[in-house]
Fold these 2 entries.
Entry 1:
Amino acid sequence: RKDQGWSALFSEPMSELVQRYTASVGFDQRLWRADIRGSLAHARMLGRQGLISAQDVADIERGLADIATEIEAGRFEWKLILEDVHLNIEAALTQRVGDAGKRLHTGRSRNDQVATDIRLWLRDEIDGLASLLAAMQLALLRVAERSVDVILPGFTHMQVAQPVSFAHHLLAYVEMFARDAERLADLRKRVNRLPLGAAALAGTSYALDRASVAAELGFDALCENSLDAVSDRDFAIEFTAFGSLVMVHVSRLAEEIVLWMSQNFAFINLSDRYCTGSSIMPQKRNPDVAELARGKSGRVVGHLMGLITLMKGQPLAYNKDNQEDKEPLFDTVDTVRDTLRIMAEMVGGAIDPATGDVDPKNPGLTVQPEAMRSAALKGYATATDLADHLVKHGVPFRDAHEVVAHGVKLAMERGLDLAELPLADLKALHPQVGDDVLSVLTLEGSLSARQVVGGTAPVRVREQIARHQARLAGA
Ligand code: ARG
């Protein structure tokens, strides 16, 4: 068993099946950069503390640099027998530099090593995701900027409710993604703590300088309890919870895009590059990207369930169960990253990195204001405005509500919108109906009346856009 990095205690070789079952190298290789960074910081600290010689440190640095080059070039041979990324790299190091390689693991265990690697890796991915969340918000803002005066029906219960600005509708998603970004920044603080020094579970008798390792690796703090440091994966659970919420927000947006693309709405259009055809129906252009984004939310929510269940019932401290943390976590990062990238581009267009401008060949989704407008004119979306008009003329709201119901009934019987009823008929509804009632019943009148903070009046919507733009420019 010496080739596996353990003691001479074992007399029987591991079966092929057990090897395959227990090995993680097939998927944890992607931690190699973090593993090497962590090993370098650990080795340098061992050198500073006089626990290994300066020559050992130099040998380790040289060996690990070589290994990094090989892995990068795809020439490194990963061995299943060596179980995971950590043992593979350590064995390759010893093969190259001899005793110095064997000294690297002084005061360290794979338990604190793997926890460190995941946190380092995840921290860098978090920073990439933070930029993508900003890109997603900017994409929505680009469409919002040109859609303040585009009016569509707002729905409750999927029934026409009140008219809203399309920009206002998109800004609702900006708020959601802004909160996701806040959550991400907050959980990053808890990811960015250093486990190294916890060793297997109890800490170590070597005089390690944990703070200097943390500083070299850019960790904000140390994990303060060795048992906790090696055993909890709450930071990964928290991250998948964040990922689940992002995907739920994306999924709702994707669902709306799918609906809006349908001929029965025809509110928007997407570039061909985000659609696919049908092998049987020649007329089809299907919004596959949006549908997949909606569908992929399921796997991320599944990963959250997987990880949280993995943790439950594990006694302290490290258990091999934790090796199962990686695939869900990796797939969550990959899925959220790819989904945000593609959705930002599909909505807001592709940005030319040289100029920062939108590529005219890939401008993002196109808005069809006329279709939105005619949909907003169906379904008596301004009925509330008529009631509000009466209230402003002194009628109690509940009475006004009743009067308007009669008005809607009348309009329905005649197949007209409220605003299309003759003024005389409107005035006949109630003595307090004023001459200015028709302007109140237009879509524009309805929007511009909603000037409350957070409302859909164009002046408020323009303020929201400016506020988000300033926030994102500052970030
Ligand atoms: N591959 C293992 C994991 O991902 C590394 C830690 C293994 N530690 C141990 N004592 N077997 O969790």
Entry 2:
Amino acid sequence: MNIVLMGYMASGKSAIGKVLAKKLNLQFIDLDVFIEENEGVTISELFQTKGEIYFRIKEGEYLKEILKKNTNTVISCGGGTPCYGNNLEIIKKYSISFYLKASINTIFERLKNETSERPLVATIGVENLKEYIAKHLFERNEFYEKSNYTISVDHKTIETIEEEVVALL
Ligand code: S3P
């Protein structure tokens, strides 16, 4: 069975996915990295040159390719992955999914210093960032909440979160 980690930007999907895969002796795929490797450019460059819609189409295609081809793989999604097309349906069909739930404050504190690598928030000033996160998270929560399990990640170490995931399997 595959394990999919979803959640907002900076919720720890990649870091936890890596540790989790190692612990369970499973393959690890970070969807953003997979897209970058297959497209030969960074996510930021992809947004700049081809636009978000092209990115969303590719994101859905690669997600399906990974989930249909692999078993016993931990997949860390991008923040928007479950919110577009039929991605959530595919995730539900081919994996056990976890929502790594971070609060607006946690996300803000983590994102405020590293917006430049993230195209969706790169142009949003720090003074508007919290409001942006709050609205965006409100829109996306209904998708995230459809995962099999929700784990709150605020004030927890990667190891604690990883142990909570393992205990739920
Ligand atoms: C996005 C999140 C990013 C990346 C892209 C779009 C989003 O991934 O897929 O910039 O829509 O939230 P991370 O959640 O790993 O930052």
